[in-house]
């Protein structure tokens, strides 16, 4: 993995706050020339530090979907089982987020569905077929209270 220096951390912090910031503005804020800034962004993308860009939509655009939070417990907690599970999850665009967890379950997944029939299909065709799964516990959201990628002001300086 790429070793991040202070400039790389600044670029990542600025992109977290506004991924649509122009390269010229980003370069200015990071103290680089635009070409040097673009080279660093491409290196961060190639190395996987920056894995993608997203839009956070308001309720009007997403009110027809509901989030489902899924806790997955694996049969065994070995590196091989984790690797096979994670590789399989990455193949399914229906799974928007996947986190390796501590506590009662091994993974937390998030999917968005239009209705219970769509979730049943995802559960049957995808979740129950993932390698190493011992238990699936799903919770449907009632409504979205907060959705943001921005970090609190107290954490911004530590990037």
Outline:
Helices cover 40% and strands 19% of the residues.
Plain-language structure description:
The protein has 159 residues and is of the alpha+beta class. 40% of the residues lie in helices and 19% in strands. It has 7 helices and 4 strands, in the order ααααβαββαβα. Helix 1 packs across helix 2 (23-30) and helix 2 (23-30) crosses helix 3 (34-47). The longest helix has 14 residues, at 34-47. It is globular. 13% of the residues are buried.
Which properties best describe this structure?
Alpha-Beta Plaits, 4 strands, 159 residues, disordered C terminus, 7 helices
What is the strand and helix layout of this fold?
Blueprint: H1 6-17, H2 23-30, H3 34-47, H4 59-62, E1 66-74, H5 79-90, E2 95-100, E3 107-113, H6 116-125, E4 133-140, H7 153-156
- Beta-strand share of residues: 15-25%
Oligomer: single chain
- How many helical elements? 7
Largest β-sheet summary? 4 strands, antiparallel
- What's the alpha carbon Rg, rounded to whole Å? 19 Å
Percent of residues in helices comes to 40-55%
């Amino acid at each position: 993995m790429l070793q991040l220096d202070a400039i790389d951390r600044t670029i990542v912090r600025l992109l977290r706050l506004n991924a649509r910031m122009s390269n010229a503005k980003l370069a200015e804020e990071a103290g680089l020339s635009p070409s040097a800034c673009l080279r660093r962004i491409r290196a961060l993308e190639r190395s996987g530090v920056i894995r993608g860009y997203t839009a956070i939509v308001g309720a009007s655009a997403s009110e027809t979907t509901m989030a489902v939070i899924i806790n997955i417990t694996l049969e065994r907690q070995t590196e091989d089982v984790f690797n096979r599970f994670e590789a399989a999850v990455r193949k399914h665009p229906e799974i928007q987020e996947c986190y390796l967890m501590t506590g009662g379950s091994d993974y937390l997944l998030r999917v968005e569905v239009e209705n219970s029939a769509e979730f049943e299909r995802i559960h049957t065709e995808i979740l129950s077929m993932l390698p190493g799964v011992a238990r699936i516990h799903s919770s449907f959201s009632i409504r979205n209270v907060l959705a943001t990628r921005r970090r609190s002001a107290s954490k911004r300086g530590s990037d």
